Every structure is written in structure tokens, then in C-alpha cells.
Amino acid sequence: MELLLMGLGGCSAIDVLSILKKQRVEIADFKIEINGEREPEAVPSLFQDIHIKFIVKGPVDTSKVEKAIVLSLDKYCSVAKTLEKTAKITWSLDVV
């Protein structure tokens, strides 16, 4: 199950970084932290809540990063589109 979260993080990271590169947004560092809550005592125990924390370092336009995240999770990331059928996916952004 942890590999599913890792797949979501990798898929979304590639999308976000690709979108920002096309917009000529340069960042110094990029990290993702993901937490997932599974259905208690269910078999199979699927994810019901997933939160992705995007951490971006550098002088960036926050609105461009937010737009890239939304595009990734709502349109491009096939892992997110698969998981959203059973889990609520939320995200936050920290710009350092």
C-alpha cells in the first residue's frame, strides 16, 4: 500500500516539475510528503484519505505552483485519478 502512495508522489512530482519547467519557473528544491489513512477494520483496507504536502524552495510565484498542482492531480496524474475513486485526496503547499 505504501508503494501506491509513492507512485502517487512520483507521478504528481513529475507532472508539477514538468509544468513549472514549461512555464520557465525555476525552483531550488522540491519535496513531497504524503500521508494516507486506510479504512479501519475493512478487508481489503483501501485508502480513504490521502494528503499530499508539496514543499517548494525558491523565489516562485505561488499561484503558478498551485495551478501546476491542480493540473497534475485533476488532469494528468493517472495514479491520482485511480486513487480518487476510493479516497479523498487533499493537498497543501509550503513555499520556503
UniProtKB/TrEMBL annotation:
InterPro entries per UniProt: KH_dom-like_a/b (IPR015946), OsmC/Ohr_fam (IPR003718), OsmC/Ohrsf (IPR036102)
Query: A single Pfam family, by name?
Result: OsmC
Sorted alphabetically, which SUPFAM superfamilies does this protein's record hold? Answer: OsmC-like
Extract the signal peptide range.
Answer: none
Designated name of the protein: Redox protein, regulator of disulfide bond formation
Source organism of the structure: Sporocytophaga myxococcoides
